Amino acid sequence: MRAGEELPPLEIPITRTLIVAGAIASRDYQDVHHDAELARRKGSPDIFMNILTTNGLVGRYITDHFGPAAVLRKVAIRLGAPNYPGDTMVLTGTVEQVDGDTATVRVVGANGIGSHVTGMVTVTVPSGGAV
Question: Residue 40: which residues within 8 A CB-CB, separation 6 or more?
Fold first, then answer.
């Protein structure tokens, strides 16, 4: 783990199933996350991913890279362009700072219309943890 290290990109196909399953798993029953007709009536072209699903995908991206011993200490993200079905979100990351066994990683998740998520994740990888 070193400052400037780039994490390999992770491509995530945005499917209706992913969007709806994420909303159900996080108990977010807002209609814009599962009912296309009601989402359109509210001005959206389709259903879209909720922030809790995005947060989980960002966490997965970090722990997939740093290994099962990695502990997320802080996740500070901001949403931008919606994730709609049929698109692909590509997560990328750069280690910004390292302090002992703790790193701060800048994460961006981009889709076909822009940056869906941007933020910083602080992760601790205990000695002997995979990297």
Answer: 46
